């Protein structure tokens, strides 16, 4: 197991990146980009989620077994998003 721990500077830079991504998502919500609006917001949300998992949950410095379970949780989240999107896209009123 790796005993390296994140520094305060890494936490601060990660938090700053999360704030910037958050305001980018907020700003893009006011732009009329069509389907690209949703794609940009989803991509930035995934990047935010990865940053939170790696740095604030400290998975980056954890054992490989933790990585496997984190990846399994991410995979399960992808399955849930796919099922929700398939339900939404196949509705008759859409």
Description:
This protein is 73% helix and 0% strand. The model has no long low-confidence stretch (mean pLDDT 88). It is flat and about 55 Å long. By secondary structure, it is mainly α. Helix 1 (8-28) packs antiparallel against helix 2 (35-56). It has helices at 8-28, 35-56, 64-89. It has three helices and no strands.
Give me a quick take on this structure.
With 94 residues, the protein is mostly helical.
Secondary structure blueprint with pairings:
Elements: H1 8-28, H2 35-56, H3 64-89
Helix pairs in contact: 1-2
Report the biggest beta sheet as strand number plus sense, adding barrel if it closes: none
Chain-averaged pLDDT:
88
According to DSSP, the number of beta strands is 0
The end-to-end distance, rounded to whole angstroms, is 50 Å
What's the order of the H and E elements?
Answer: HHH
Count of discrete alpha- or pi-helical segments spanning 4 or more residues: 3
Question: Helical amount among residues, as a percent range?
Answer: over 70%
